[in-house]
Predict the structure.
Amino acid sequence: MDLQYSENDRERAFLIALDTGTDDAEASMNELFELAKTGGAEVVSYAIQKRQSPEAATFLGSGMLSDIADFCHNNEIDLIICDSELSPVQVRNIENITGVRTVDRTTLILDIFASRARSSEGKLQVELAQLKYSLPRLGGKGTALSRLGGGIGTRGPGETKLETDRRHIRRRIDTLRNELDKVEKRRSLLHERRRKNGAQCVAIVGYTNAGKSTLMNRLTNAGVLEEDKLFATLDPTARRLKLPGGSQIMLIDTVGLVRRLPHQLVDAFKSTLEEALWADVILNVCDASSDECAEHIDVTFKLLEELGALDKPIITVLNKCDKADLSEVVNYENSVKISALTGEGIDVLLALTEKELSRNKRRVKLLFPFDKISASSIARAGTVHFEEYRADGLLLDVTADIADINKLKDYII
């Protein structure tokens, strides 16, 4: 790996990982390198140890840790970052052996999210994820705080302080959940209002740093932050977009994904990620120039499956084709090759989006006798192109869901 040295005020980091043969350890380490860089660290070097399973007490073997301790001492390393989730005992033991502060992948991602959350909802979600992660780890913060259960030598300020901390965290978690429940209800009402007004939604999902924000800005001039860093955008952005056929849709940008996204974050950001559930069409954006493009697409599909959104029309958007060797880019079903940066392929993407949106729609003329006008409310859930009160009733020209049209087949003319 090419080592990049940056500003002097960055923490000098050493990365560690295990290769158990179940995942691509090198690919995961490359991603950890990018995460560390995004978090503000300067990665000096890394080590991957091949083992069947982690060492219960120290994660890596004692010999490897001894070598890492020497390296850290000789190279002024400030921080060790582990590519897996560590137990409190493992963190403490690694720190005792190496003399270097140690964090795991989840802690790093939570820290990045905390530094990048801008909206009040985003900040609530990050704080909830951090507290849920720290609560079961309080007992490992040091021997003085870990002796619970009663008996001689187990009482005193240590236990009292720990129990106070736990109660405070649990109360704060309950408060945050209540606040997020309110946010989720407001979001649900907003979605219902959009649907009632006949607004169709398209959600942009995909791996972090795949160019989702660049695509959003290309299509809508949204002014979303674009950076060559992981998790440049956390808060969802919604903008109106006029399609070539004249219809208007709501385009929504969502938080990016990574391998093994901490489940605390998936839970906390569920209301944000569930934008995909409300969408009429999902754009799964990936970096076609990446060697791991296929894996990134798979990560997104797995999360969509968890959310129950696989029944939605999904367009695989192979972005950054200006940087990719097109002969090596895999052709996926219902996919389109684009460059959000140069605009290449955008017209094809818009045409395909319009086609997918129309699959479950039908345009019809409906005539409601005056004593049946109340039934027109179903038709108005779609898009009303024209309406006229005539001598024989209300005439509507609408595009609506086929399921709604079938309920009104008696009024079709």
